[in-house]
Amino acid sequence: MTRGIAFVILTLTALAGFQLISSQTTNSSQKTTSSQGASFNGFELVDKTGNIRKPADFRDNYQLLGTWMVLDPKGNQMHVTYAPPGAAEYYRTNKKFADGTVLVKEISSTDHAQMTTGDAHWASSTIQWFVMIKDEKNRFPNNALWGDGWGWALFKADAPDKQVATDHKKDCIPCHIPAKSNDWIYVQGYPVLKSK
Predict the structure, then answer these.
(1) H helix intervals, the chain
(2) Does one domain contain both 60 and 84?
(3) pLDDT score at 40
(4) Which of 16, 93, 102, 128 has its CA 20 to 30 A from that of 54?
């Protein structure tokens, strides 16, 4: 009888341990799958006709690719670019952005003051956001905001949820011509895309 009870206890302990390990393995693989799936899911931001919406909470959920300071007599600007987790690592490995990668560039006016380190500049109020989604399959050939390997969108600060660009060839490509050889992206401003 004692052996029978000991055997039952040992069996239950082993099953509990197996269940715990199985649960951890399942959760781990779900996180990996979820993380990988979430990294390049830009088409979740696109309706069936190709209209792009700006991702919510990109500042909290995306990673910083880099920052540009644009000196402009009409007002200096800070350009801060974000991408989903895993986008920079994918780029470093493959030398290109994955299909579905989202880039969000937030453009802000700047303030500045003399600090102990010199004439310091920082972002102040947001002017606009540019959103791009990598499209290797030319999914929306009849939508003028899709072409040259990307979906293109522009959102202004006075209506942050309203996409206002009408044609990527007129509204977007002219500013990206110097970066054509880098798939239209100014990769030199994003140090995380370089090898570690």
Answers:
(1) 2-39, 58-61, 87-94, 168-171, 173-176
(2) yes
(3) 74
(4) 93
